[in-house]
Amino acid sequence: MNLEEILPGVRARVSKIATSGDQREDIRGQLEDIGFLPGEQVEVLRKGLLGNGPILIRVGSSTFALRESEARLVEVEIL
Fold first, then answer.
1. Separation of alpha carbons 14 and 3, rounded Å
2. For the chain, what is the domain count?
3. Domain range enclosing 25
4. Are the CB atoms for 67 and 4 separated by under 8 Å?
5. Are 2 and 66 contacting, i.e. CB atoms less than 8 angstroms apart?
6. Which is deepest, 15, 50, 52, 59, by most CB within 10 Å?
7. Which whole-number Å values give the CA distances from 42 to 30, 35, 49, 59, in the listed order?
8. pLDDT higher than 70, residue 69
């Protein structure tokens, strides 16, 4: 399951960042730099209008807005 599929209010744990190709490697590095690391707890706080658009996510004690394409790369396990 990935972050894009999780409903607001659900907590999960990062299992891995999916990669395939140079562009995704860059995004993977950026996601890891801001705290999306295996084992880290995450929570989906809010999704964009009608479920489209940016997804507001808390990772650790920080809050970030991710594009849907970025959230799709973060594989998680529901807690």
1. 9
2. 1
3. 3-78
4. no
5. no
6. 59
7. 16, 10, 21, 4
8. yes
What pLDDT digit, counting tens, does each position of 12-39 carry? Answer: 999 999 876 666 778 888 999 999 999 9
> Predicted confidence band at 49 (pLDDT cuts at 50, 70, 90)?
confident
CATH number at residue 32: 2.30.30.90
The Cα–Cα gap between 27 and 48 comes to 21
pLDDT, position 18: 86
Dihedral of alpha carbons 41, 66, 70, 31, sign: negative
Give φ, ψ of 25 to 5 degrees.
-60, -40
Quick count: other Cβ atoms within 10 Å of Cβ 9? 9
